Amino acid sequence: MLALLDINNAYVSMERVFRPSLNGLPVVVLSNNDGCAVARSDEAKALGVKMGQPFFQFRHLEEDAGLVALSANFGLYGDMSDRFMSLAAGLGPEQEVYSIDETFISLAGVRGDLVSRSRTVRARVLQWLGLPCSVGIGPTKTLAKFANHVAKSAERKPGSYSAEYAQVCHLGRLSPAALDALLIATPVGDIWGVGPRIGEQLRASGITNASQLAKLDANTIRLNWSVVLERTVRELQGTPCISFEDEPVPRQQIASTRSFGSPVTDLAPLIQAVTEFATRASEKLRRQQSHAGRVMVFVRTSPFRKRDAQYSGQMVVPLRRPCSDTNSIVAAALTGLRAVYKPGFNLMKAGVMLVDLQPEEVKQLELGLEDDEPLRDRARLMQALDVVNDRFGKGTLRVGSGKPRRAAPEKWETKLERRTPAYTTEWQALPVARC
Amino acid sequence: MFASISSNSPLSWVPATPLHVQDLGVVVQAGFPSPAEDIGAKRVDLTAQLVKHPQATFLIRARGDSMRDAGIFDGDVLVVDKAVPAKNGHVVIAVVDGEFVCKTLQLRAGRIKLKAANPSYPDIVPRDGQVVEVWGVVTASIKTMPV
Q1: Residue A288: closest CA among A316, A320, A248, A238
Q2: For A225-236, what is each residue's pLDDT tens digit?
Q3: Is a pLDDT exceeding 90 seen at residue B61?
Q4: CB neighbourhood size of A354 (10 A)
Q5: Do B135 and A130 touch (CB under 8 A)?
Q6: Is this complex scored with an ipTM above 0.85?
Q7: Does A372 or A74 have the greater pLDDT score?
Q8: Which of A252, A251, A254, A257 is nearest to A314 (CA)?
Q9: Which chain B residues touch A90 with a CB distance below 8 Å?
């Protein structure tokens, strides 16, 4: 058996811990540069705000309905997530951190009543952190995820599922008929792994609920649809097909991209921005102990600015040899930037993506035919750089084309007008209590 | 009389004429061994003393002097543990009208009162319908001195 623990409306709930005045109000958290909604309180959902909806479409609700829109405060969310993961780990012997607010716990060998055990952990997360969470238990990841959906909906959408499943839902306890009743009550699109397009196709062929999907023949699914959907069906039938990853899987590509706070037309600020993105991406690359083979850089205008002339340019620049060296990666990114840059456009977004990743211990030997500088291993230099920046703050040591550390904010930088303070990660930003 | 020392037979008597041994093959540390070694003492860890439940502990800055007589002054940093169940007499962080307030908790006959520790401040008694919630228990106050 597996459990999936998931924080309800995670970012909004984390904000409310430190700003209790937000309780009961419609609250949304916006993505970088306040672009679109990435978390919504139940009250904001009731006002019709959709996940991923652009802010300008529902901005009027601030005045009309008292909506509070906040900029994402990822420093705070990261710390609260760490605390949550550590408490959730108490439920079973193995843990997979699936995302910032979701974790799978393997319950293999856990004795006793899993439901009451889950309720204890849930209550602890609520008291210790002030965060509400839901627990779903099932024999596969897809079923645990489904159980979590049931637990969450039963608590917050009366009428969706019976209230006995609220907060904690353990499928292993149900009779086959009771499980099927839950699946029948679930639209096929609510199942993990069924995206909007597949959901549409399934409905078109008469499969509208999860029970119908679970009863299909897996082999037929593979032939007529895809291996991915076959896996989902088998998991719904109770056969584990998605493995439990207790070690984070190294990512296949690493990106650092951002929408600008306001339009940028000149090359100089772009060089600064792309240097910053390439630096961040290199740091992430070193953290997962990989080397990159190629660097992709792009710039583009915003399709939302309809009166602007539109442009989008990108280029992939191979590295001389795979590495995680900030200097080489920044140099490659800037070579690409100079090639794709065109003056006269209101550029709104740029980014750097590292591809062809490989573990750093893979080394390709080469013939010394070229006359350039001898192959120098700069891994220790990069290590020193990371240690210094970790200790004294981001950007203490940086490449010269980056933004000076204490310089005034540039146009390309993220707008953070609506961000709450870093309550738990900065000494100067602690919450205040009136005495 | 000389002792021959090898790695597996520590000492044995060698009944022979004097013999000059140049290398015993063992290293002897000069100086006295540290008498503290066996004690295994660890330097006091301030964080471990002040933080009993690391996941549940948050720092909050005190503003105002209504808790003066409890030793909490304006600007102090309070260690707040959300895992500790609040009891009568605890100094707590409570939420009053959506704001954090630091007071002494008084629980009598199921009624809650937030008492100031300074005679010039009134106690907070919830009005009808007003919800006062205890957010966490203050377990320490950190006051830094100007240096």
Answers
A1: A248
A2: 889 999 999 999
A3: yes
A4: 27
A5: yes
A6: no
A7: A74
A8: A257
A9: none
